[in-house]
Amino acid sequence: MTDRDPECLFCRIAAGEIPSDRVHEDDDVIAFRDIAPRAPTHVLVIPRRHIADAHALTDDDAELLAKLFAVVRRVADAEGLERGYRVVTNVGPESGQTVFHLHLHLLGGRPMAWPPG
Ligand code: 5GP
Ligand code: ZN
């Protein structure tokens, strides 16, 4: 697997070629605000490495997956989401996935309906 897809929007955001409102960055993970927020807090948490979606993860990605969720927790704390929040990842076209680089949506700051549409 290549680390980067030059055609991929989120690879380009991770590389800083396209600006984003970053709320976290480290060697493996970045988090930035969604351009079209669906909640008062709507942050996307992504690996720097290009992985198409959650279905493309392998056993070797266990550590990376833990890091992604550690960033979710840190951002949720920083955003004051102690009343709760939702973590969503879409997989494939029928789920509504539009950017094919793994991302966790962190949504919070308002009550959430269940089930999602
Ligand atoms: P998906 O539909 O693939 O689960 O989520 C993709 C998300 O990326 C959408 O919520 C969309 O608003 C967001 N998005 C698309 N293009 C950009 C962009 O250029 N910058 C940022 N910050 N978010 C984007
Ligand atoms: Zn990518």
Describe the protein in words:
With 117 residues, the protein is an alpha+beta fold. The chain has a single domain, classed as 2-Layer Sandwich (HIT family, subunit A). Helix content is 20%, strand content 21%. It has helices spanning 9-14, 62-78, and strands at residues 22-25, 29-33, 41-47, 85-88, 104-108. The radius of gyration is 14 Å and the shape is globular. The mean pLDDT is 97.
Outline of the structure:
With 117 residues, the protein is an alpha+beta fold. Helices cover 20% and strands 21% of the residues. The relative contact order is 0.22.
Per-chain topology:
Elements: H1 9-14, E1 22-25, E2 29-33, E3 41-47, H2 62-78, E4 85-88, E5 104-108
Antiparallel strand pairs: 1-2, 2-3, 3-5, 4-5
What distance lies between the first and last C-alpha atoms, to the nearest angstrom? 33 Å
Number of helices: 2
**Major β-sheet, in short?**
5 strands, antiparallel
Low-pLDDT runs: none
Report the structural category.
alpha+beta
Highest-level CATH class: Alpha Beta
Q: Radius of gyration over alpha carbons?
A: 14 Å
Please name the CATH topology: HIT family, subunit A
Proportion of beta-strand residues: 15-25%
**Spatial sequence of strands, sheet with the most strands:** 1-2-3-5-4
The string of secondary-structure elements, in order, is HEEEHEE
Shape: globular
Q: Tell me which CATH architecture applies here.
A: 2-Layer Sandwich
Mean pLDDT: 97
Bound molecules: guanosine-5'-monophosphate, zinc ion
Helix content: 10-25%
The total of beta strands comes to: 5
